[in-house]
Structures are given as structure tokens and as C-alpha cells.
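Deliverable D2.4 — example input (C-alpha cells):
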């Protein structure tokens, strides 16, 4: 090759794009397997649709009612005070509650989008983004990764090994405002539930209430 001679190298852009997409899908899949999520609904009133969906065909179940401030405070008493995350949330994501960091955990509203732009492809956005057809849930999430791994801005920095998760202790007496019984539950379930709660934590018995939907009335 002589000095000044033009050289070139062929690059198959389709293969490069496919490889990049496969890598991102793999990272997202592994991150999902190592991320533990506690989900709540921001609905102020009971939702007939959510009862139907989350009971999964059963008639018996309960809904736990609390407040965002109580949830944050209960998490703070375990580790440390909640702080605003240093991450930059895209302007396209509207959040009524700021994204907070509490030691290994984060808490924030779910954003309902059908896709995440590559420029916003971070682990936090993976954890708080769902398809638009779930928007009726009005979800807020507490989430964290296993093995005390902290969130960083780049998905590639994530440790891909899978673990058994971790335990987060909560003062349920402080957290729970009420335990609402499914509107479909028969009297025997309500009776047995109250017996069980009295046995396990009698301080919660006065917080048990019937659903306002009152299907069985």
C-alpha cells in the first residue's frame, strides 16, 4: 500500500444494528431477573377493574391501603433518609412524585410509554416504564436490585449474575391504613381472615374493612 492511497472497510450496518439490539434486549432481560419490585396504585378510590385483574379469577383477597408519605417513611427507618435521585428524567416523562433514592431502593411513579428511546435506555427507566395500555393502574413502585447492587446510569455496568434477592423489613402497623376485603369474598373468608389477623398481629384487626363496592350486599 502506497502513502496517500485511499483505503476502505465494508461494514454491514444491518448486522451491527441487530447485534446492538440483541445486546440491549439481553441486558434488559437480565436486569428484569435481578430487579425486585413492590407495586402500589395511586388511585384514591377502589377500582372494580383492579379487583378483577389482581384476584386472577379468585373471589378472595385483600387490598392494603396506605399513603406515599407513610411508605417512604417506613423505608427511611430501615436504611436512611430519602434523597432526590441525581438521575436526569426525560422531560417527556411527567411525574407528580419525584424519583427518590433510599439507600439501595428507589421509589417513583411508573411512566407509560410504548418504547424507550435509546438515549434514555437506563436501568431506572427500564424499571419504571410500562406499555401505555397499563396506564389505568396509576402505579408507583419501590424497586431495587439484588446483591446490594446500586443503580447506575449505564445498563452495561450491571452485574449479570442472578441471586436470590434480599429482605426489606417494614413496620406494618405504621404502614397500613386499612385492609380492605375483596367485594366478592363470602362471610367465611372474612371471618377466617379476622381470626388469622387477631392471631398474628391483633393491632391490625381494627383496620380490617369491607370493600365499598359491596358486591355481596
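Example output (designed residues):
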Amino acid at each position: 500500500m502506497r502513502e496517500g492511497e485511499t483505503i476502505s472497510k465494508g461494514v454491514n450496518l444491518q448486522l451491527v444494528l441487530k447485534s446492538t439490539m440483541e445486546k440491549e434486549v439481553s441486558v434488559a432481560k437480565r436486569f428484569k431477573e435481578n430487579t425486585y419490585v413492590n407495586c402500589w396504585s395511586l388511585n384514591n378510590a377502589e377500582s372494580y377493574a383492579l379487583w378483577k385483574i389482581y384476584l386472577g379469577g379468585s373471589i378472595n383477597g385483600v387490598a392494603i391501603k396506605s399513603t406515599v408519605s407513610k411508605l417512604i417513611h417506613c423505608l427511611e427507618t430501615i436504611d436512611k433518609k430519602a434523597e432526590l435521585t441525581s438521575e436526569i428524567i426525560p422531560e417527556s416523562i411527567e411525574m407528580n412524585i419525584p424519583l427518590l433514592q433510599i439507600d439501595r431502593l428507589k421509589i417513583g411513579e411508573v411512566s407509560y410509554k410504548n418504547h424507550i428511546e435509546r438515549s434514555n435506555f437506563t436501568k431506572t427507566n427500564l424499571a419504571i416504564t410500562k406499555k401505555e395500555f397499563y396506564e389505568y393502574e396509576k402505579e408507583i413502585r419501590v424497586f431495587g436490585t439484588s446483591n446490594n447492587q446500586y443503580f447506575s446510569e449505564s445498563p452495561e455496568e450491571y452485574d449479570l449474575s442472578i441471586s436470590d434477592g434480599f429482605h426489606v423489613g417494614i413496620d406494618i402497623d405504621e404502614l397500613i391504613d386499612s385492609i380492605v376485603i375483596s367485594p366478592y369474598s363470602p362471610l367465611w373468608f372474612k371471618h377466617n381472615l379476622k381470626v388469622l389477623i387477631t392471631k398474628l398481629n391483633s393491632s391490625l384487626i381494627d383496620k380490617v374493612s369491607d370493600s365499598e363496592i359491596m358486591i355481596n350486599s
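The two ends are 90 Å apart (CA to CA).
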